[in-house]
Structure formats: C-alpha cells, structure tokens
Amino acid sequence: MYRGTQTVGTCVENPTINAEDTEVEREMTDDVFDHTYREKIGPKPPAKIVWRNVILMSLLHLSAVYGILLIPLAKPATLVWACLCFTMSALGVTAGAHRLWSHRSYKAKVPLRIFLAVANTMAFQNDIYEWARDHRAHHKYSETDADPHNAMRGFFFAHIGWLLMRKHPDVIEKGKKLDLSDLHADKVVMFQRRHYKKLILCMCFIVPTVIPWYFWGESLYIAIYVPCLLRYALVLNATWLVNSAAHMFGNRPYDKNINPRENKFVAIGAIGEGFHNYHHTFPYDYTSSEFGIKYNFTTCFIDLMCYLGLASDCKRVSKDTIKARQLRTGDGSHRSG
C-alpha cells in the first residue's frame, strides 16, 4: 500500500516509489482513469435543461455583478470579511471535498474534518458526498460521456452548463458503481449530507451576511450583496475554471495524451488547483502540484495542519517518478519550478 512517509509536523514525499511506477497501489483507485470504458454507439441523448437552475444561477450572477458595484461603498472590515469567507469557502472545496474526501491524499483528525465540512458548506457546491462522487467519476471517466463536466462538450458546458441540465445517463450509471464506502463510513460527511439544506442556509447565506451587519454596523444591503452573494459567485467560478479553463488552456508537461493543462492563473484563483495536467497524472498527490506551495495556498494550509498535528500521512510523488513521467509522456514544456 502506498503511503507518504511522514515526520512529525510535516508532510514529505515517499522516496521509495519506483521511478516508472505512476499508478502505484493506493487506498483507493476510483480516481484512476478507466481505459476500458467505451462510450455507447449511436446518437447522444437530448439535453434536458433544468430551468430552475438556469433561473437561480442567472439571478446569482446578476446579484454578483451588482455586488461589484457596491464594493466602493462597503466598509474596509466588510471587504476583509468577504476575503476571509472566500478563503474559507475555497478551502472547504480544495483541502476538503477535493484533496481529503475525493482523493484521500492525506488524513485529517476529527476537528479538522469538522472545520473543512463547515467551510465546504459555506461554499455550497453540493454536499461532500455528492461532490466527491462526481469528482471521482470525473477522473475515472475523464472527458467521456460518464464525466459529469465533460470538457469535450465545450467551455460553457464544462464551466457551468453541466449544472443547468440533466446528467448524461452514463454519469448516473457509472457513478452508482463507484466505491463510496469510505464516505459512508465518515460520520462528518454523512452528518453534513443529512442536514445539508439547513446548514447551507446558515453557513452560506446567514453567517456571511449577519456578521458584518451585527458586529460593525455594515449596511444589511451591502452585507447581502458583497460578502454573501458576490463571494459565493466568485468561489463557484474559481472552482468551475478548474473544470473548463484548466482543461483547455495551458501546457501539458506530464502527459500530452490527456487534455487537462497547467494553468497558473486558474491556480491563483482556485488557491492551488490549476496545475491540472499534474493532478490528472498523479491524482493522489496531496499538493496537486510538482512545486509544493508555489501558487498553492491549499498546500500551505495542509502543511500548517500537519504542523499542528491535525493532518498526517500526506501522499507525495517522488522527483524520480515525476521526471520519468514527463520524459516519457510530457509535451516537452516541463520546467524545474
């Protein structure tokens, strides 16, 4: 079983991996691409638009645009609070739903898992169980009909369109066959799933709005539009850019045979999640990048949690493995840092 070598207070790479072994034995394999999957022959099923989602997303983005206009009127403390809410929401997705629960790339103690679940609820991107299930399907069936946000269907679909229409039947069929026993066994994940509607009302909408209004007298109007709705829309789009832009724009230094790319701008906006060619090549690496903390706030956060004793067993790819892979399948654009 592949486990990252760990020392007290830090997460380091495992130096024992064979340089040619890029699909090492791990605790879970449902995030490894399935080369045996074949799309069904014949016409594609017609797209079925979910008009409720279209209306809600349109209203949210119109509200976010209006929120931008209100930024000059907001108190400095409110803008700082909005940034804190953005960061917390993003960590709930990146360090939580993505690296911890989707890929099991590190282990987290109960207090950290609770914090990440709360932060994930503030992000309101479906509950952890559903997010992790869809993300594992995205890796296992990347850019096929069974991929929830298949980038082969275009930028708009990969970015937001997949949320505005019914899932392709293959997404539902293959998603049901994934091994999600680890998520079922996680009491924090299942608690969030059971109480999700009440929790998102509190964490995504009430808390970001009430705190600036109550504690430093911000206008309730501005509190609703800036730290609540604008912040929410920004976190959504930062995450969606990983599905869209990072699958279309950038280089492929690790595997030129797949579409995911290295996109520094997405990495900055999504606090470390834009090194996507690397991530799809080595999905079990807790840093999601060859370069550790560079442009990668999420890795900084996980390293801090390791230092505090709240995280451990961080899985990392050895330099030899990375070099061997980029020489064998990369597009020649690899740089040392």
DSSP strand tally: 4
Q: How widely separated are the two ends?
A: 29 Å
Our count of helices gives 14
Question: Shape from CA axes?
Answer: globular
Provide the number of structural domains.
Answer: 1
The main sheet comes to: 2 strands, antiparallel
Mean pLDDT: 91
Strand order of the largest sheet: 1-2
Question: Can you give the helix content as a percent range?
Answer: 40-55%
Q: What's the Cα radius of gyration?
A: 20 Å
Report the portion of residues in β strands: under 5%
Category from helices, strands and their pairing: mainly alpha
Task: Give your account of this protein's structure.
The protein is 53% helix and 2% strand. The chain is mostly helical and 337 residues long. It has one domain (6-15, 47-329). A hairpin with a 2-residue loop joins β1 (6-7) and β2. α2 (76-102) crosses α4, α3 (110-123) crosses α9 (196-216) and α9 (196-216) packs across α10. The two termini are 29 Å apart. The model is unreliable at 1-10 and 12-25 (pLDDT under 50).
List keywords for this structure.
337 residues; mainly alpha; two-stranded antiparallel ribbon; 14 helices
Concise structural overview:
The protein is mostly helical and 337 residues long. It has helices at 51-70, 76-102, 110-123, 128-140, 155-159, 169-175, 181-185, 187-194, 196-216, 220-243, 264-269, 276-281, 297-307, 319-329, and strands at 6-7, 10-11, 107-108, 311-312. The protein has one domain (6-15, 47-329).
